[in-house]
Every structure is written in structure tokens, then in C-alpha cells.
Amino acid sequence: MFAASASPRRSKWIAPPISSPALSAQWIVPLPLQSRACVAGDTGTVGGSMLGLPGLRLPPAGFLLLLPFLLLLLPATPAPHRASYKPVIVVHGLFDSSYSFRHLLEYINETHPGTVVTVLDLFDGRESLRPLWEQVQGFREAVAPIMAKAPQGVHLICYSQGGLVCRALLSVMDDHNVDSFISLSSPQMGQYGDTDYLKWLFPTSMRSNLYRICYSPWGQEFSICNYWHDPHHDDLYLNASSFLALINGERDHPNATAWRKNFLRVGRLVLIGGPDDGVITPWQSSFFGFYDANETVLEMEEQLVYLRDSFGLKTLLARGAIVRCPMAGISHTAWHSNRTLYETCIEPWLS
């Protein structure tokens, strides 16, 4: 449907290192003590009546004159070691590009100077509608060399649809070294809502009948249909979804065990979202909550994928590796530019 670009571009942004001010050491050389005991024939001895230490001898006067010059020969005091932060990889969402994250880059530069931040400039704009497995492959080729150069690990910040791309990456990469996976307003349990994106893409369809398109082979060629989750047609979803049902472990496939093991390599899963998002529907999908058949939201702990631990959610929670950070008053397009959100929900996990 969309022609694949021959060589995907990557935009790399490196925060400039801060310069450490030179340290100066101040040396204080004591003056010779004056005492009645300093008499001819014994000018280097201070009597015990002065210091209470009998027989204490001062160094020769010539040595004291040379002392400042000898101190110059000593090695300089080393500058304090500046913390080295793990590289950060950013994956954008639907219809986005790397430019959308300029504010986030500024925040990271201010709070974690010297951090290498890479915003992957792949599948921008309408290219982001391409099938998610195709995008996963492209992003995998981009992140692998970054991870290889960072043996201490990396952090992922993945926004909206990009959060699903990143979760798939963690599933299929058996050698990833992701410390913090920060899912920023991402429909992790799927999407079921009328939004401006849908109206533009499918102008004659409503959420109630979009399953007719999305659960067809043709519909699965669109990224948004890869995570369309209609709670009123669960059987069709399970059989037709070529992406979400697989990474959720809701449908059997031969890689399920390996994908679960890979996903559990992550150090920490940070989930961010809020009730005023306006796009992710239900907004609790950002926290692995979703509708039941009556459109009542069931939280993560009530979902079958959690109860069955089909891809590792229950295990992660048991080891204290899931952080949930809900925040009201933020619309969908403002998550990556809101300073308060960054300081509260993102910055603490960029070690």
C-alpha cells in the first residue's frame, strides 16, 4: 500500500556535555614556632613546655622555602566523576515525527546533561499507517546497534502507537537490554473509540461497525486496525488480529514462550496516561485496562492476559517492576511536552 523507503533515516540528538570547572587546592604552610627552647645549637627543637610533646623537631628552614615548589609537582586533584546516564531511545506515534519531541529533548538535556538521546526518524507521518509488524522490523534494525554500544542498558520512551511497537520489540528481541520501558499514553490493551484519526481514515465508519474493515485481511494492512479491539466481537478480534492478540498472548502461536521470556528481560515498565487524553479509548488502556462486553472498564488485574500471565504482566507486578503514573488535565498531543508530567513520571526513571 505504501512504498517502503529504501534506507530509513535516523535523527540522532546528543545533549552537549557540561564542562566541569577547574578545581583549585589551597595549601597552608605553618610558620615556625617561636619558643625560648629555640636557642643556638638547637634551633630545630621546640620544648615540651610549649606543645606538651618533648623533642618535637621542625624541618630545616631550607626545606620550608622549597615546600611550595614541591607541592607543584604533586598530581592535580582529580575532578569529581560525573554520573553517566543510560542512552534514551524515543519512538513516536501515529502521524508523528521526531520534531514533535523537541521539548522532551530539552527537558532531558537540562536534567540529565550528557545523555545520548536518539529519536528514531522512521515511519513518519502517513508512513506510520503501515502494518505494525513491518514497523517493528524497521525499528528493530535501528535500535539494535544503539543497544550494542550500551552494555549498561538503555531506556525506551514510546508514545501512543509507538508504545505498542516498543512492546513488540521487547517481545521479539532476545538480546535487548532495556532498563526502563516508558509507555507514554499508549493503547496497550487496544483502541475502541471514535477519534479524529478514525474519521479521517474511515469517514463512512463508526466504531460500532469498524470491525467489518479492521478484522479483514485488507484492514490489517493499516496499523490502527492492528490494535483495534472491539469488545462486542471478541471472537473476530482473536481470530483476525495479526498483532495485538499475538503480543498479548491471547492467541496461541509457536513463539509465545520465547516472547514472554524476552519481555521479562525489561527492568521496569512505566505506564503513563490520564482521563483527559481524548484519544486513547478507554483511557485505561494505557494501564492495560479495557472494556468488557458491556463497555465497563476492567482494570489490569481483572484482565485475562494478567490473570493468565500470558506475556508476563503478573510476573512484572509481583517483582515490583510496574510503575503506574496517571495524570489528569493532559490531552493526547501534550504528553511529551508537559514539563510537570516529565518531572513526575519520566525523569525519575532515566538512570
Question: How would you summarize what this structure contains?
Answer:
The chain is an alpha/beta fold and 351 residues long. Helices cover 30% and strands 13% of the residues. It has 14 helices and eleven strands.
Structural notes for this entry:
The protein has 351 residues and is of the alpha/beta class. It has a domain at 88-190 and 255-349: Alpha/Beta hydrolase fold, catalytic domain (Rossmann fold). Helices cover 30% and strands 13% of the residues. The chain contains 14 helices and eleven strands. It has helices at residues 48-51, 61-72, 102-111, 132-148, 161-172, 196-201, 211-214, 223-226, 234-240, 244-247, 256-263, 304-307, 313-318, 339-346, and strands spanning 11-14, 45-46, 56-57, 88-91, 116-119, 154-159, 178-184, 268-273, 290-291, 297-298, 322-326. The strands form three sheets. The chain has a seven-stranded mixed beta sheet, sandwiched between helices. Helix 5 links the parallel strand 6 and strand 7.
Question: Keyphrases for this structure?
Answer:
seven-stranded mixed β-sheet, 30% helix, Rossmann fold, two-stranded antiparallel ribbon, 14 helices, 351 residues
Overall structural class, as computed from helix and strand content, comes to: alpha/beta
Percentage of residues assigned to helices: 25-40%
Annotated CATH homologous superfamily of the domain at 88-190 and 255-349: Alpha/Beta hydrolase fold, catalytic domain
Name of the top-level CATH class of the domain at 88-190 and 255-349:
Alpha Beta
Strand tally is 11
Can you give the mean pLDDT? Answer: 83
Q: Can you tell me the overall shape?
A: elongated
Give the SSE order as H and E letters: EEHEHEHEHEHEHHHHHHEEEHHEH
Rg value: 31 Å
Q: What's the total helix number?
A: 14
Spatial strand order of the main sheet: 1-5-4-6-7-8-11
Strand proportion = 5-15%
CATH architecture annotation name of the domain at 88-190 and 255-349 = 3-Layer(aba) Sandwich
Low-confidence stretches: 1-56
Largest sheet: 7 strands, mixed
At the fold tier of CATH, the topology name of the domain at 88-190 and 255-349 is Rossmann fold
Termini Cα gap:
41 Å
GO molecular function: palmitoyl hydrolase activity; thiolester hydrolase activity
InterPro entries: AB_hydrolase_fold, Palm_thioest
Catalytic activity: S-hexadecanoyl-N-acetylcysteamine + H2O = N-acetylcysteamine + hexadecanoate + H(+)
Keywords: Disulfide bond, Glycoprotein, Hydrolase, Lysosome, Signal
